[in-house]
Structure formats: C-alpha cells, structure tokens
Amino acid sequence: MAMEHGGGKRLTDMTVLITGASRGIGAEVAVRFASVGMNVVIHYGRSLEAANEVARKCLELGANAYTVSADLRSKDQIIKMKERLENYGLHPDILINNAGISHYGMLTDLKEAEWDDVMDVNLKSVFLCSQQFMPYMISQRYGRIINMSSVWGLTGGSCEVAYSASKGGINAFTKALAKELAPSGVTVNAVAPGAVKTDMMERFDKEELRSLEDEIPVGRLASAKEISSLVYFLALPESGYITGQIISSNGGWYT
C-alpha cells in the first residue's frame, strides 16, 4: 500500500525531477524512484539518446517517465523547462539537484572561464532550480530538495579547487535553505558521496584506483546504486524530520 504524507498525496502520485539524469548517479536515482511507480522526469543537457535509455528503463518498471532538456546555467531555459512540465500537468514534489561537472588541475592553470563554468553548472543551477520549483512545494506544504554534493565539499581536494568550492557552496546553501523552508514542510538535504564508480573516475588508471581503494576503510568504491538508495530514503515522507544535513556516503574515508 502506498504511503501518504500529511497532505494526503500518495508516494506513487508524486513527481520527481532529477537533473543530470542521463548517466551515472542521476540515472540510477531515476531508476530507483521509477521502481515504486513515481512520475520520473529525467533532465539532460545534450545526451538525448542516453536520457531516452534511462526513460526506457523507468517505463519498463511501470513508472511514467519524461525527458526534458535545458542548459541549467540559464534561468530562462530552466523557466521554459518548468513550463513544459506544467503543460504535462507535472509539478515536482521532489527535486534532485544532481547535475554537475568536474575539473582537475592546478589552480595556477585554471582559467577564469573554467572556474565560472564549474560554478554555474554545479552551484548556480542548484540556486536556479530550487528557486523555480520550491514555490509549488511551499504551496502544498510538502516537498523534498536533495542536492548532490561531494566529500570534496567537506574536505577539499588537491587539484580540484573549483569543484571543491562549488560543492562546499552547495553544503552551505543546503543548510541555509533548510532553515528557510522548514516551516513550510519542505526538507533540504545534501548527499556528499566519496569515490563512486562513475565516468567521473575515468581519469584514474587501474593502479591509481587500487591506491584509492586502499585509502578507503571498506576497501572499495561505492556503486551508484548505493548512493541512489540514500537519495531515495531522504525523499520519503517518513524522512521529514531530517533536514539541513550533509550526509556523506564514503565508506569511512572521511568521518
């Protein structure tokens, strides 16, 4: 039997929007929500074919799945994405701000345009998407905003200054917005994974990956499925007392 929250909406009647959901953690999150029959909106930037493949997996699980494209660095495009969803009668009850890019290199070599791009995609998009989609949540006095951070936002990562700074900004944003929205029944949390087996790890060779695994107490990288389970838990109605938290799934790497 589907659980209901205080307002009476069943979990299976809710809509979740996942940004950057054509691959990696975002794709796994989409499939996790689809497994309970939710309306799943898969945002993508340029990877239409990959997004359609994620949608196909969601449809096979019995969920309603939709794909939508937008450049999340642009407020106008986010507003148009919201309008397209409204035309389908979709108002996200759950927003997963997952879209992100990385940059690896010495700060002395970092170009200003590269810094701006990391900040726009990783941090500005969280601000713009939250701002556009939280009014509906406030109006119904229920909602979930879950931001994808990183362990580097907690510890800092050598040669990843821009990425670390963007994720640290997400953590502060999460804590502040959680206090702002708590009276409205909307929770705001962040998930800060450690090393996860996704294409972001492709820059490491086998020897580097083995060395990395040796540093992690559980002795391995996380799977995207493990991260998606935490995201799903935070989105549940019964998780309503958890807000303003930065939860790091990192295998004991950072405590």
Quick overview of this protein structure:
Belongs to the short-chain dehydrogenases/reductases (SDR) family. Helix content is 44%, strand content 13%.
* Low confidence ranges: none
CATH fold assignment: Rossmann fold
- Bin the helical content: 40-55%
Helix-strand category: alpha/beta
Compute the average pLDDT: 94
Per DSSP, the total helix count is 8
Main sheet strand line-up:
3-2-1-4-5-6-7
- DSSP strand count: 7
Instruction: Indicate the radius of gyration in whole angstroms.
Output: 18 Å
Task: Summarize the biggest pleated sheet.
Answer: 7 strands, parallel
State the separation between the terminal residues, measured CA to CA: 37 Å
Strand content: 5-15%
Helix and strand succession? EHEHEHEHEHHEHHE
Which CATH first-tier class would you pick? Alpha Beta
- The CATH homologous superfamily name equals NAD(P)-binding Rossmann-like Domain
CATH architecture: 3-Layer(aba) Sandwich
Q: Any idea how many domains? A: 1
Please tell me what the overall shape is: globular
What key attributes describe this structure?
Rossmann fold, 8 helices, globular
